């Protein structure tokens, strides 16, 4: 299945996923506040990628990756309208400038985005995966777990396909409400990697029996 995916926020995560998904044959549009910059990156990446403004990207793509900082949601919202019927993949961690979660426990960025875009299919995914791991999600011969949660079966199917195609083990963790548990997991990873001296060469893996 080939998708048309608009990347809103072509930074580290956005460009990394654009590269991988473009190489896999998906149609990629980079959506930036600076369309000329997006065009340049797109032409450098190849694979018929396009670069545009944020509003144009949201209009043109069926699937949108939200890969911008949490504080930018209000700016992006002004540009992109209701996104009716579109899939929104939210990989945002709502991190403050001091490195803690801006919200959590009883609410999450995923739930906030689902509330703000009630006509879209919002899914929380990929937020707990370190940018460098997308290119090679295999650890000691085992695929990293890619957890996702959403109220939309359609969004879950698409994210499961994309994650499996990249080499992850996709795991459905239920409704979008569970983003309030998935966002702290990313913070745990950051603490372990960068504040406890473990470094980034580890990931989370669901073991079952
Ligand atoms: N880095 C990771 O390992 C990682 C892992 C999982 C999840 N995440 C999450 O992914 C998101 C992006 O992280 P990143 O590391 O890729 O950050 P980044 O490299 O700083 O890229 C963020 C992008 O967001 C866009 N942006 C910034 N302010 C904006 C605004 N006011 N309005 C619209 N767009 C704006 C920028 O694109 P333009 O300037 O082109 O508009 C920028 O390229 C964050 O929410 C982060 O928590 C990151």
What does this structure look like?
- The protein is an alpha/beta fold.
- Helix content is 37%, strand content 20%.
- Strands 3-2-1-4-5-6-9-10 form an eight-stranded mixed sheet, with helices on both faces. A two-stranded antiparallel ribbon has the order 7-8.
- Strand 1, helix 1 (12-23) and strand 2 (27-32) form a beta-alpha-beta unit.
- The longest helix has 17 residues, at 179-195.
- It starts with a strand and ends in a 14-residue tail after the last helix.
- The mean pLDDT is 97.
- The structure holds NADP nicotinamide-adenine-dinucleotide phosphate (NAP).
- NADP nicotinamide-adenine-dinucleotide phosphate is lined by residues 9-14, 32-34, 37, 67-70, 72, 75-76, 91-93, 95, 127, 129-131.
What is the string of helix and strand elements? EHEHEHEHEHEEEEHEH
In total, the number of domains comes to: 1
Question: How helix-rich are the residues, as a percent range?
Answer: 25-40%
What is the class in the CATH system?
Answer: Alpha Beta
Instruction: Determine the CATH topology.
Output: Rossmann fold
Strand content: 15-25%
The CATH homologous superfamily: NAD(P)-binding Rossmann-like Domain
Structural class category: alpha/beta
Largest sheet: 8 strands, mixed
Low-confidence stretches: none
Q: What is the global morphology?
A: globular
Tally of helical segments: 7
Report the strand count: 10
Spell out the key features of this protein:
single chain; 209 residues; alpha/beta; Rossmann fold; eight-stranded mixed β-sheet; two-stranded antiparallel ribbon; 10 strands; binds NADP nicotinamide-adenine-dinucleotide phosphate
